[in-house]
């Protein structure tokens, strides 16, 4: 596998899910947010063959804030406006995740 492949392309080549690739990347050294909260991934090659710069954003604080606001009874739309994201993002963050064993 090439170091310059996207997560989706790497997953397709290895026959695993993109989530598995992301979990493995998180375990690798140097995969931590910088001062701006972004995680440098470098350049990636997509399935279409184009090379693009790739930087992931650490959303841990935003997600925690969304959960706090919802627990206090704020509506989904008000949370999205307050945090500066879409209603769909709020729904995704609040969606219960299955427990893995």
Automatic annotation (TrEMBL):
This is Helix-turn-helix domain-containing protein. Residues 65-95 form the Transposase IS30-like HTH domain. InterPro entries: IS30-like_HTH. Pfam families: HTH_38. The lineage of its organism: Bacteria, Bacillati, Actinomycetota, Actinomycetes, Micrococcales.
């Amino acid at each position: 596998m090439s170091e310059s492949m996207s997560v989706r392309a790497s997953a397709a080549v290895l026959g695993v899910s993109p989530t598995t690739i992301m979990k493995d990347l998180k375990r690798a050294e140097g995969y931590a947010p910088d001062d701006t909260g972004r995680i440098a991934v470098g350049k990636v090659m997509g399935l279409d063959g184009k090379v693009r710069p790739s930087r992931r954003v650490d959303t841990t604080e935003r997600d925690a804030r969304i959960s706090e606001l919802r627990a206090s009874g704020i509506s989904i739309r008000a949370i999205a406006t307050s945090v500066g994201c879409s209603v769909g993002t709020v729904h995704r963050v609040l969606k219960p995740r299955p427990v893995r064993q």
